[in-house]
Structures
1.
Amino acid sequence: MWRDKKPETEAKQSPLPVVLPPEKPIEVKPMAEPMKTPMVNPSDPSRALLGRTMVVKGDLTGNEDLLIAGQFEGTINVQGHSLTIGPEGKVKAEIQAARVVIYGSIHGNINVQERVEIYKSGQVVGDLVAPGISIEDGAYFKGKIEILREGAREPEHPRLVQDSKPSAAVSPRAAS
């Protein structure tokens, strides 16, 4: 009797789970290109051009799109319009624009209403404030980024509130 009975563990072996292939093969699609590379066209009549051999210092304000292929130092304000820094463009400036597209180099802070795009050949050293930012693989960026929320045009900085109560002062002897 004892010997005729099989152990329960052998009798209750559960089958291994079987993984069935999906009915449709899984289609793997490459990630969509993060940004379309716009053409830098210096002959575009709808934008102003600072040519490759130009070196300009000062304040630049305008009501049209601007392409910088040369060198600029100062401030740039083209509110409501786009600024493009060409592959050979070198800019040291504080920038305000609707959109900034960078193929060259910028050293300075950038504040835009729409979007900043930094392409593979682009180099930016400075802070970015924009609702939209894209940085292509291989581009160089060093600075801070502040993403504006929809409807906000100015960066939100907390107000410094000074307390009217006198604060406890540390005496020079206690500090040493």
2.
Amino acid sequence: MEPKPPFPTRVNLRTPEILAHVQARVESHFRSALVETIRARGGVFQSGQTTIRLAKQFGFCYGVERAIDLAYAAAKVFPDRRIFLLGEIIHNPDVNAQMTALGIRHLPARPTSEDLAALVPDDVVIVPAFGAETATIEAVKARGCQIVDTTCGDVMSVWKRVRQNAAEQVTSIIHGKAEHEETRATASRALGPDGRGHYLVILDPEQAGCVCDFIEHGGDAAGFLREFAGATSAGFDPDSHLRRVGVANQTTMLLSETQAIQNLLRSAIARRDGVDTGNFRYFDTICGATQERQDALFQLLAESPDLLIVIGGYNSSNTTHLVEIGTQHQPTWFIRNADCLRSANEILHYDLKNKTETVSASWLPLEGRVTVGITAGASCPNNLIEDTIRRVLDLRSEPPPPFTTR
């Protein structure tokens, strides 16, 4: 039998020397003095007849900053070793392109046996901010690789809750997107250390309604499993595994939807079993930064901007929820970066309804006073926000900001 590779020693990536180097490089790539200046002035900048209003909270959160810092630190500390990233560090194409520029290679978030077999003990593997499934982590450890874990602390808090559910034979109902890396990582922890736990992933209140109907009235178990194919643990039996449930969530979902879902489930179980039976539990595990950005957007929209620009990766969950909020109030444009603002008449943007990038016309008025609201997802760096501000002013033929930029 081939000997098991030795487990690597722990390496401190957060020494003062390393952090100083990392901070300088990260700021050179992602910082914007312009955005910081506007923020310090109350989030409002006016040039000519164009007013830019920034949400009070936007862009990188602490968890994202930490993940990026650790990736940069890994590149600094291990310059002569192959460094791999499981999937994407965060959901932003510009940031992930910078990871490639650092020499970091990419593995699929769910690596195949062939991908794993190519790893050697001298390799370094970065776990992204979303975390990774337990089977993937164990497989990487078995190869003897050095692991740099950048998993967000808020995500790990959810893992603690679902592990507790598994230990107490409570099924975790996870509000999230079944194929999202974070949800898959959380679901793997919901199985518990012995693999005997169970989970069900639901996307929205509509799906929650289907679950509530089964909780109260039972029904066709096979049909239920077809409805939730790919969103349940192996061997899931709705007749038995919906007796005791605990609600958790992907940390970047809409808070209002998570609250609505837990209210629906709580009520269904109360109608079935009576109140205070202990068959329902709920912990608020929405990420604080996600909630702050959603609340800040509502405040920005209360100022009635003429249009809203949301900047971020199209596969970013927290960003798409900002877009959903915006479209309920004002014309809202979801862009990846300033290059999407092709002209005052043409914008390349992501259509959430049709899930495709599309081009629209006449998005930006050229005459009269215009207020443009801008926000960004937690994975969007400030330099992309600055580029967007400058592009809007240029398209409106307004003077550029007179103060120092990055």
